[in-house]
């Protein structure tokens, strides 16, 4: 018994000794645990408050409640046509907003099942998801993310938006401190979002602010880009593709990385299957899983849609306009109302495409038949090393020269290295293997065009086509390009004649005059037919209708070149004009923009109205920033203007007039004036067509002056440019919604001060000097 008691006491003593050894650590451990717990209990709220208040600028600012209630994630500036059609937008991202009702049921359910299936059960933060993530971290077995849909929206709106400037001093310590602070802000903003928005609003805001790669920002643009449909029409598979992209848009881009996208789509569909939405059996899941990716891919960019050249010109103007006023065009939410009519723009682009495709084929075949390249000098000789010189103006050359040096063999090798690329063709983009030199050689052979239509009474530009394809040819041939106008300049000489009391019935002989030039041989122009006239007498209306160089030169000799230049500038030409005899043939460069504006002066009763393309600009709240009104001046009197309209009508009405080839139906119950133009070196073809409510100009030629038509006859404006105007007018008159109807030119309010009956006496008044009174000299 004593032995047993002794043994028990021995064990107790050992236990007591053991506890005596360990006992001092237990209270300390408990103490530290409690201290840590109390620190967390008190410190975490203080940390949250300090982040919210941005204590000492350590954390960076937080968005205000007003910003959260009114997130300005879509402040791109929109461009609208005169008839209310959306033309495009200027943006840093490509956002486009939708409402909840515009989302398909499949899209909403797929999103919630995949990204946040407890979305309707939490208030911004999902505690079970936090514990799952924490468990994954300590067990080294990650189990998915813990961010709710609301947190991801907070990240979209603010944390990842560099314009908000939400970083503080601690962010400079590295990515981990910065990430912790970012996460904290996500929590705070998520709770604020939940307090101020409904669940449906949060879903819509999240999808509207998400990036889907391929310049698709927001669900609307994403649905259009990848499937060519609205988000209300997305089915289950399509929804799974887009939802799968949310985690890594580029990595799961179905166009660039189809294997990744297919795998991710099936992962999303598996979640849908596990939650029993529509896919309620394993067989159905296996069936839908085996389906391939079905895309209808088309990236929305500034090269597409109506009026791409106009939108580029407009953006250059708007950038300067906004910079002068401290406005951010890409983030101000402006609405820019333009003068462009979407219907007329559509018909202009169609007319260009229909004619230029045919003309290009003829151009190519004709040069091929001659076994020549289309680049020639003024004497008709092929320009030596044309492509080698032209390649130096390209971006490819600049990049390779900077990398390898201009005189290096590597530069030459890289310029001739073939690589996959898309090139332009009139049948659509063509995929091929071309080097930079091949691409230049190919694209330089395409004819270009410029076309502009304007309401002569208001100055509103109604249509603007700057080239054949903005994706491949960026240069604008309406306002940016200037070329010799050829015979389209002649109306300014005859306009001065009308102002100087000449009658359209005044007669001259078809004989080319001599211009005496100091220290140079005498100069005398040839007619288009290659002669210097056969002495036939004709009225100056007939002479302009037939585009006789000889009689135009006589008129300029009589009127004085300085006076012609002054008149041209007065009615709307802004470019410098050379004081040379050949000006009568249109040898000084002008833009199509200028010509259309100047011809409009004749139609508008002598009032010059500068062409313009914006009617008003509004801010994001609909307040008008500026209303635009045209700049006008009385350039010539209405008598002169009307006489010039009568002169221009001669091209259509006179025998052998250069506009007689227009479609007959256009002339019925309609008054039309027209003037063709062709440069002597066969580089440029022009046509100017005027009606009582529309003035339209067309230019056709190569991107370089040295690219010429195979012959003067091939390149004449009546063949190259007039058909575009003709097609455009036929389409325009066929659509009554355009508001452009046939009609007659406005007569002067005081009546016409001259008789147009050329059978009567057409002698000049005493105030007008006869053409042959004295020779006209010009000093070099």
Annotation field: number of helices: 28
The residue fraction in helices comes out at 40-55%
The radius of gyration over CA amounts to 38 Å
Task: Give the CA-based shape.
Answer: elongated
Based on DSSP secondary structure assignment, what is the total number of beta strands?
Answer: 18
Major sheet summary line: 5 strands, mixed
Arrangement of strands in the largest sheet: 2-1-3-12-13
Describe the structure.
- With 780 residues, this protein is α+β, with helices and mostly antiparallel strands.
- 42% of the residues lie in helices and 11% in strands.
- It contains 28 helices and 18 strands.
- The protein has a 5-stranded mixed beta sheet with strand order 2-1-3-12-13, with no helix packed on it. A 5-stranded antiparallel beta sheet has the order 7-6-17-16-15, sandwiched between helices. The chain has a two-stranded antiparallel ribbon with strand order 4-5.
- Helix 6 packs across helix 8 (199-208) and helix 19 packs across helix 24 (638-653).
- The model is unreliable at 765-780 (pLDDT under 50).
